[in-house]
Design brief:
heterodimer; A: 115 residues; mainly beta; five-stranded mixed β-sheet; four-stranded antiparallel β-sheet; 0% helix; B: seven-stranded mixed β-sheet; globular
């Protein structure tokens, strides 16, 4: 099973960049790295995903290590609204059958942003 | 385009009652998921489906059943509700592409008393 490891919590100051790490040493060649976040009292929302190359969108950037065993979600200028739980996820396959479609979430990283 | 629609948004059940949480998506997604989230905890996968007629267990399937007779609908049935099933339930869907993004419903808050 492809698993991810993230720090339990991180803190940042408003307007500063935030680098959220994720380790996924058992990643397979076809696995995309997905990031989601969950704001307080809301459902999860998509942030960004990538396969090999670094990716940018309006919310964040994703830096993927050359060996793909780790990645970093970058929030360029944290705001108070970015305070959330951030999840890095991969497909949870390995059990055969339909496990290619299985997606599980770990505990994620709780990001606190200070004014 | 409604996306993923869950009903009901709130429900209170008595111990031993049964109910069905409805989930529908209008994006023609093959993959659908049910997660539960207990207070202060992460999301746990209950069941998932990779297409009509194909469902499989996730991490915490006990006490639940699902069916997928159409691409659009993926209902979650709770049999003999227990207080341990008090949680927020999220339905999600995505395409079958490896990079497909998960789209979530707004959640259904269930309390079992």
């Amino acid at each position: 099973d492809a698993k991810t490891t993230q720090p339990n919590s991180m803190e940042s100051n408003e307007e500063e960049p935030v680098h959220l790490p994720c380790n996924h040493s058992t990643i397979s060649g076809t696995d995309y790295i997905h990031w989601y976040r969950q704001l307080p009292s809301q459902g999860p929302e998509y942030v960004i995903h990538g396969l090999t190359s670094n990716v940018n969108n309006r919310m964040a950037s994703l830096a993927i290590a050359e060996d793909r065993k780790s990645s970093t979600l970058i929030l360029h200028r944290a705001t108070l609204r970015d305070a959330a739980v951030y999840y890095c996820i991969l497909r949870d396959y390995g059990g055969g059958g339909t496990s290619y479609g299985k997606l599980t979430f770990g505990q994620g990283t709780i990001l606190t942003v200070h004014p | 385009n409604a996306g993923v629609t869950q009903t009901p948004k709130f429900r209170i059940l008595k111990i031993g009652q049964s109910m069905t949480l409805q989930c529908a998506q209008d994006m023609n997604h093959n993959y659908m998921y049910w997660y539960r989230q207990d207070p202060g905890m992460g999301l746990k996968l209950i069941y998932y489906s990779v297409g009509a007629g194909i469902t499989d267990k996730g991490e915490v399937p006990n006490g639940y059943n699902v069916s997928r007779s159409t691409t659009e609908d993926f209902p979650l049935r709770l049999e003999l509700a227990a207080p341990s099933q008090t949680s927020v339930y999220f339905c999600a869907s995505r395409t079958s592409d490896f990079g497909g993004e998960l789209f979530f419903g707004e959640g259904s808050r269930l309390t079992v008393l």
